Amino acid sequence: KRTSNLSLPPGPKGLPVLGNLLDLDGRQPWITFTQWASTHGNIIYCRLLGLPVVVLQSQEVAKALLENRSSIYSDRPPISTRKAIGSEFNTAQLRYSDEWRLHRRIFHQSFRPEAADAYLPTQLHKAHQLLQGIIETPERYQRHIELFASSVIMSAVYDYDAKPKDDPLLLAADKAIKVFVEVASTRTAIILETFPFLLKLPAWFPGASLKRLAIQSQKNSAAMVDIPFRYARERVMTATSNRCMISESYERIDVQNNADEFELALKSSSATAFIDQTASTLIIFVLGMMLSPNAQKRAQAEIDAVIGTERLPTFEDRSSLPYVEAVLRETLRWHPVFPLGLPHYTSDSDMYNEHYIPKGVMVVANIWAMSRDEAKYPNPNDFNPDRFFMPDGQLNDDTVDFSFGFGRRICTGKHFANASLWIAIVSLLATFRFMKPLDDDGKEVDPIFEWTTGIVSHPVSLPCRVLSRHPGTTTEKLSDIIELSV
Ligand code: HEM
């Protein structure tokens, strides 16, 4: 391929209008991209419905471009439908601009490693609530995991202590995010970009489901952005708020004359925190445990040996539990929840080796391909925490950071999410066994479930038998153990 005398990266040949869309597995485009790597190499160029896309297939190339040349690769694709689907608030979709820089500053002061450690006690407390929820209704374990993740975020961002059951703000946020994820999936965004008239059809028109979805998304997003923010601001103004992202921002950011701009950025970035994927990562952990009983037993044996069974693990135990650490890393690697990350966009043209990368192309880091790198991760489809140990038995330095993206657009909640994941995983392993479901004859069978499609990938509803590791553990007994653990 040539643009005058410059060579674009190699890639599959496509049809004039559809480009390579028909070759793509629409449910799991990352798998098709990964297959293309074997023919075309670690950087490929293709066209999807007229949109040029560069796919980066290895950590090395992604770092070389998205990190080392971040001044060119930190924009996001323009999405003219942002307003129509109610996603103007979303930090993750903002162009590389002063508005985006203000959002990042707000996140950075609360979620940079040193600051995020202030939330560890809350994360521990919410992990204990998670255990109590599952002891009471183990069949609803997935719902309890979702509640854990969103109430941790609500607490850190708004200092809002969500009720364990039917909390109105959590329900509103869940509803908004579900519709939003659907309507903002890369595929839907490409369709809307290419056929924006779909949003102009009356909502009752057959086939206008995207428009209906968009209207719903607008309403839900407005509620998700405004309601918790008003709650938190009120408490900051009356000096009744504990430390949270909202209170810290009011305290530390000098708004000078731009109070309106600042408040808009603050409420928008706060609502973006709901894009958190801690819950979906924890469901993948549950799947990994069910399918790899040996890994589960080894992690539990480590916890029992180091901590015993009289108390629950705390963050102070983290460095004494290397196998649990490896289970967390393997969960992030085995099935990355953002298999294609979020698309970056070039703000200038560039040359990489002999490849010309034009200005204004979508640049996708294929995190899935990176997790399948056989040289680094032999038998990549196996859930095998041992891969993170060196021959001398020490953990290696691969913390699977690529699952949080690259460069200036790297996940702002990475450190905080890692702590939430760790405390949930270690607490769940200390308390429960995750077993395959039984068939009618009482025999264990592999769970049957569907994966989500779109920008995030995780089991929609995962059947699992969650059993207490210490039969006879009642809610009261667990409460006693929790008391001894804090
Ligand atoms: C296990 C949980 C999580 C995973 C796997 C994850 C992963 C990611 C990935 C892959 C990206 C795209 C990075 C890129 O464009 O290169 C991202 C962006 C982002 N994440 Fe996370 N994330 C998680 C949790 C969180 C949490 C807890 C927060 C908030 C506290 C958060 C806030 C954000 C924001 C604001 C962005 C957009 C950054 C920007 O565009 O500048 N994430 N995340």
UniProtKB/TrEMBL annotation:
Heme binds at residue 411. Pathway: Secondary metabolite biosynthesis. InterPro entries: Cyt_P450 (IPR001128), Cyt_P450_E_grp-I (IPR002401), Cyt_P450_sf (IPR036396), Cytochrome_P450_fung (IPR050364). It holds the Pfam family p450. Its cofactor is heme. GO terms for molecular function: heme binding; iron ion binding; monooxygenase activity; oxidoreductase activity, acting on paired donors, with incorporation or reduction of molecular oxygen. Keywords: Heme, Iron, Metal-binding, Monooxygenase, Oxidoreductase, Signal. SUPFAM superfamilies: Cytochrome P450 (SSF48264). Belongs to the cytochrome P450 family. PANTHER family: P450, PUTATIVE (EUROFUNG)-RELATED, P450, PUTATIVE (EUROFUNG)-RELATED-RELATED. This is Cytochrome P450.
